[in-house]
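Our working data are protein records whose layout never changes between entries. Instead of coordinates, the fold is spelled out as a row of discrete tokens. Here is such a record, shown just as it appears in the course material:
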Amino acid sequence: MPSVMGLLEQRELGARRRVDELREEADRVQAELAAAERDWKEWGIARSRVGELLGPVDETEDHARTERAMPAQGQAEEAAPASMAAKPKSQVPVWREGLDASVLSMDYQRILQALADRRRLHQGPLTCQEMAVLCGLDTVPSKVEALRSKAKRMVARGWLAEHRPGRFTLAQDATGPGGGS
């Protein structure tokens, strides 16, 4: 006859396995949702652009739009285009094998790209202030702290590592995010 503790351990193990399966499924669905939302937004942008092309042409408005789209040489763009803007309250799924960085919003992808470039150039970790510069942001406290919050979230979800406080790198798994780029 099995012991009560043995039966409880079996039930607990079964429940834990079920939770793990559901978490994996939720991450997969979240990644698919992000891809579908991105597709939807891209089609909306395409429709909008075609509408602009087929609409009446106002040369003064067209010239002003072109000047806004092309900043002067050596001058950074003030705001990212709508297609590159981060989704509000975007979620960062837990990193796992086969999960692509495209499931992340553009802000998180920029952080990964900056750190991937550092790894490729065999340079050390980045501070949030350095990341802000590489991402084209002002190094004012509000922007740096927003980046720090994102980086900490990415550490908690396995995308980044923070071996020393305030110094971020890609997660050390060679097959991990950005490991192949």
User: Anything to note?
Assistant: The chain is about 55% helix and 5% strand. The helical segments are 4-54, 59-69, 106-120, 128-134, 141-156. Strands lie at 160-164, 167-170.
